[in-house]
Amino acid sequence: xxxxxxxxxxxxxxxxxxxxxxxxxxxxxxxxxxxxxxxxxxxxxxxxxxxxxxxxxxxxxxxxxxxxxxxxxxxxxxxxxxxxxxxxxxxxxxxxxxxxxxxxxxxxxxxxxxx
Length: 115
Fold this sequence. Notes:
The structure is a single chain. This protein is of the alpha/beta class and 115 residues long. It has one domain: 2-Layer Sandwich (Macrophage Migration Inhibitory Factor), CATH 3.30.429. It contains two helices and six strands, in the order E-H-E-E-H-E-E-E. It has helices at 14-32, 71-89; strands spanning 3-8, 40-44, 59-65, 96-102, 109-110, 113-114. The strands form two sheets. It has a four-stranded mixed β-sheet, covered by helices on one side. Strands 5-6 form a two-stranded antiparallel ribbon. Helix 1 (14-32) packs antiparallel against helix 2. The longest helix has 19 residues, at 14-32. The model has no long low-confidence stretch (mean pLDDT 97). One of its GO terms (molecular function) is dopachrome isomerase activity.
């Protein structure tokens, strides 16, 4: 159930969105050690964002997971996701924040119930 919700002020065309979805799904699943079939990635382009007082290209992400996160994993995820964003959206890693949340199974709904 790892989920990445990505916001950027850069407009995202369907081809770029597809590349991000594919690359992030594979990378996050591999780093966290979960099957790709468990992954959920959302890309929200063209969102109003001010970062450091400017509206230059920037991004913000939130990654939640039931387990699999720790300081070492989070650092690798941050680096990898920043690289995906830089490659696809040309946003420098210094203009990207990501928040990691390790949640309890009972706090995540799926298939009409919780994990």
